[in-house]
Design a protein that fits this description.
The protein has about 325 residues and is of the alpha/beta class. It has eleven helices and eleven strands. The chain has two domains: about 160 residues, Rossmann fold; about 150 residues, 3-Layer(aba) Sandwich (Rossmann fold).
């Protein structure tokens, strides 16, 4: 019996426990297959074309998808909105039709408008992977976060049942928070969101998680503390009194980390505002921080997503 994740990956809600675990297992196998290889390439997607369509600047995500596709021997086209026909007013639909005419097998899209990947999926025949849309979702970031937690806290096997994950900061503007809450709950983890009331979205009470305004009371018992970037570029009003006040109440420093369990991991999707949501000492802690490891794991996870969407083979249950 094989497991398929369907034609697209647009949301963490596209994954149930079985498909999410299959993706994580596939990522682990691909990671192991690459370890020790002099030439870090597998022939799996030879002859396939993957387009990175980025309407927002990105370093980690775009590069990670590019490496993932190339390591599976796919051809990669990097399409930036800047310096393209998009800057001349071309619509997303016309861009999609152009990519369709070029025979792209998969389009990895990051867009400033929530829902753009889902709309794109109605216009092209290939697979669409959401690499972040507005303040909506970022499913592969949630997958690489789950992969990192599972590897560090579950010996790389099974789901995340029983883990307590505290997600702290600018939830209102965070697509990472939305995807993580959904995926982590699917994998059995308990999620607690911590933020000032002004940085929580309307309707958060209906999300499958706890909500707290007090970071210090949420930290004891946490297996993972995930700090979110304060997205000041998306803020059109004053959401907190000052950066210093935000850091005092919601920043993770060494004193707060000392209140956590010995095994507690520190995560951050990046880029970080050092000294604001996280101190440099905590971000660089070699024992607790897995922030760099998250970036490394992103390549294996995105290889797994591309493999399961494009290989046509599914993944066998073992």
């Amino acid at each position: 019996m094989s497991v398929s994740i369907g034609r697209h990956l647009l949301s963490s809600q596209d994954l149930n426990n079985e498909t999410a675990v299959a993706l994580l297992d596939t990522a682990a196998r691909l990671d192991a297959a690459m370890t020790g290889r002099e030439v870090k390439k597998l022939p799996t997607l030879r002859g396939r074309t993957v387009v990175n369509l980025f309407y927002e600047d990105s370093t980690r995500t775009r590069t990670s998808f590019e490496l993932a596709a190339k390591r599976l021997s796919a051809d990669v086209v990097n399409f930036s909105a800047k310096g393209s026909s998009v800057s001349k007013g071309e619509s997303l639909k016309d861009t999609a039709l152009t990519l369709q005419a070029m025979g792209s097998d998969a389009v990895v899209i990051r867009h400033h408008l929530s829902g753009a990947p889902r709309r794109l999926a109605t216009w092209i025949e290939g697979s669409v992977i959401n690499a972040g849309d507005g303040t909506h979702e970022h499913p592969t970031q949630a997958l690489l976060d789950a992969f990192t937690m599972r590897r560090r806290l579950r010996d790389g096997e099974g789901d995340l049942k029983g883990l307590r994950v505290v997600v702290v900061g600018d939830v209102l503007h965070s697509r990472v928070a939305r995807s993580n809450v959904r995926l982590l709950r699917t994998l059995g983890a308990e999620v607690v969101l911590v933020a000032p009331p002004t940085l929580l979205p309307v309707g958060v009470a209906e999300w499958p998680c706890e909500v707290s305004y007090d970071l210090d009371s949420a930290l004891p018992g946490a297996d993972v503390v995930m700090m979110l970037r304060v997205q000041r570029e998306r803020m059109t009003a004053s959401y907190f009194p000052s950066a210093r006040e935000y850091s005092r109440r919601y920043g993770l420093d060494a004193a707060r980390l000392a209140k956590c369990e010995e095994h507690t991991l520190v995560m951050h999707p990046g880029p970080m505002n050092r000294g604001m949501e996280i101190s440099a000492e905590v971000a660089d802690d070699p024992r607790r921080s897995v922030i760099t490891e998250q970036v490394t794991n992103g390549v294996s996870v995105r290889m797994a997503v591309l493999y399961m969407l494009l290989s046509g083979e599914g993944v066998a249950n073992e």
